[in-house]
Amino acid sequence: MTARVQGTTPGPATPGPAISVHGPATSVPGATALDPASAVPLYAQLEEVLLRRVEAGEWPAGAQIPTESQLCEAYGVSRVTVRQALGRLARRGLLSRGRGRGTFVRDARLTAGARSVSSFSAELSERGMRPGSRVLDVGEVPATAEVATALGREPGTTLIRLRRVRLGDGLPIGVQSSLLVAERFPGLAAHLGDDVSLYEVLRTRYGTAPVEATEVFRVTGMPREIAPLLEVGRGTHGFHATRVTYDGREAFEHTTSYLRGDRYEIRLSLRNTR
């Protein structure tokens, strides 16, 4: 299969030179041709082609992808086009580029193992990822019987509900719904927003810090209303997590999270006592 760069001379001019999309064995096996006649810019076409190859596992996390020169040869495009495509993928958090090192596929998964009681933002930061969040809504709701029992309150107790999409390096990892006892945190909604750490607000404004928590993970299919927020298909498997967090005196937060299975994993260290 070959890709041709169209000539600029009108009429039956000799077509431009054919460029192999496979190239030599050290180039980019499996490359597919781009379409110079398409309304989609070549850099955007190349971005999507490379993205599909990463998502298919052709270049796993930590692997070095072909060099700019090899990509130029394989896809029949200029170095500027290749750099635009790679730059866009790097900004999406999928690639890591370093001068003199090359370009590598980033591991977009957050691994949960034995850890302290910390915020989601702190958990990502500890793993070298850029934390972020997008607030979906903030409001007051009555506590259900189940949540009230977990928080040690009466059913119907007024709770503050904060729903957010949690991001790692700009990519959606989870959808999280946090329920907090309203009487303990008056005016909390005014201090919340995109990319704001809830635990940091609770610590600095209300003197509340997490000391311990109970967390339960289950495998689940993503519900219809959650899947689009995580950019996955309905029913895609992932994790459903519930967490009750305590400040050393009482429970102050009940959290429910839906987490992408391809970007969040749980790793446990097991050891016999004898």
TrEMBL record:
The name this protein carries in UniProt is GntR family transcriptional regulator
UniProt record, GO biological process? negative regulation of DNA-templated transcription
Give the span(s) annotated as Disordered. Answer: 1-24
Q: Which domain of life is it from?
A: Bacteria
What keywords are annotated for this sequence in UniProt?
A: DNA-binding, Transcription, Transcription regulation
Provide any one GO MF term from the record.
DNA-binding transcription factor activity
Alphabetical list of InterPro entries matching this protein: Bact_HTH_transcr_reg (IPR050679), Chorismate_lyase_/UTRA_dom_sf (IPR028978), Tscrpt_reg_HTH_GntR (IPR000524), UTRA (IPR011663), WH-like_DNA-bd_sf (IPR036388), WH_DNA-bd_sf (IPR036390)
Cite the PROSITE patterns for this sequence: HTH_GNTR
The HTH gntR-type domain is annotated at 40-108
